[in-house]
Design goal:
Elements: H1 34-52, E1 56-59, H2 64-76, E2 85-89, H3 95-107, E3 112-116, H4 129-148, E4 152-154, E5 171-173, E6 203-205, H5 213-223, E7 237-238, E8 251-252, H6 258-267, H7 285-292
Parallel strand pairs: 1-2, 1-4, 2-3, 4-6
Antiparallel strand pairs: 5-6, 7-8
């Protein structure tokens, strides 16, 4: 594990070997452990999306999951993303998150596109307060889709995060307005994916849908992926999930490194998103957001 890096070489470049030197080949090669298999499956999904869609982008929320996604994508494409990293910015992230974005956007040589969200007045007033605030991101994403015309968006959601996300597919079709029909999801048997969005619509691609929170942290440790310091305990609290500063709270924790986080996850019964105000509002608020196009 490392935080915001300052150990670049004398010429300002990263002194570590290129990420492409660690590329896994095959999904069930002899000697592959659990993390190797997860990595290989995710790389396969990235390459399927890139090969079968015309114009894609990776949604970078700056959190642990999307940082693992960027790491995997760099492995999939020999050290550099061949598509943009899109940050739909609410303007309400933690300062540490913006510092992370600015630093690693350059270090990882990302084609970074930062797109704004509309004001709260443009969002459905019938939503509860935190859901309404989060919905700004949905509207900002629709604006970015209209601007760039992407037919595929790669997102870092996982099935174990939240019950509505557990209903997702790896290649998930969206309607013309970005909406998601949870009752009309395509089958995905034996890694055969439907990568043909309707005309004018797009697909959401979820390369880490099959990962767990513990997998993310174990892989982050193994690969020495940078993390935001807010994930580590300070004064008995840390953030397990990062979102907008005004609707995200820390949880009680003494875990000050990844080993301690993994040990904590083995014992805790507290949900990963317990610090998200959105998840404590009306039961259907999150599903309403996701049906409308939220991540």
């Amino acid at each position: 594990m490392h935080l915001l890096r300052t150990d670049s070489g004398a010429d300002g470049r990263d002194s570590r070997p290129p990420v492409s030197e660690h590329i896994s080949v095959g999904l069930t090669a002899p000697g592959m452990d659990h993390l190797d298999q997860l990595e290989a499956q995710s790389i396969y999904i990235f390459r399927e999306a890139f090969g079968r869609l015309k114009k894609i982008a990776l949604l970078w929320s700056l959190g642990k999951d999307s940082n693992v996604m960027i790491w995997l994508a760099r492995k999939a494409f020999f050290g550099r993303l061949p598509f943009p990293a899109l940050h739909v910015d609410t303007g309400k992230k933690f300062p540490e998150m913006y510092r992370f974005r600015d630093h690693y956007g350059k270090e990882w040589d990302l084609d970074l596109r930062v797109e704004p969200c509309p004001p709260i007045d443009a969002v459905d007033p019938t939503l509860p307060p935190a859901a309404r605030s989060a919905a700004r991101k949905t509207e900002g994403l629709k604006m970015a889709l209209g601007k760039y015309g992407f037919d595929g968006l790669i997102a870092g959601i996982r099935r174990d995060e939240e019950a509505t996300r557990a209903k997702e597919r790896v290649f998930s079709p969206r309607g013309l307005e970005g909406n998601w029909d949870v009752r009309d999801q395509p089958p995905e048997f034996w890694d055969h994916f439907n990568a043909s969005p309707p005309q004018g619509a797009h697909l959401r691609i979820h390369p880490i849908l099959h990962w767990t929170e513990a997998d993310i942290w174990a892989y982050t440790k193994r690969e020495n992926i940078p993390i935001i310091p807010l994930y580590l305990s300070q004064n008995g609290k840390r953030y397990r999930s990062l979102g907008d500063q005004d609707i995200t709270n820390p949880v009680n924790s003494t875990a000050s490194n990844i080993d301690e986080i993994l040990a904590e996850l083995e014992q805790t019964k507290v949900p990963e998103r317990a610090g998200r105000a959105l998840d404590h509002e009306t039961e259907d608020a999150f599903e309403r957001l996701r049906v409308a196009g939220y991540l």
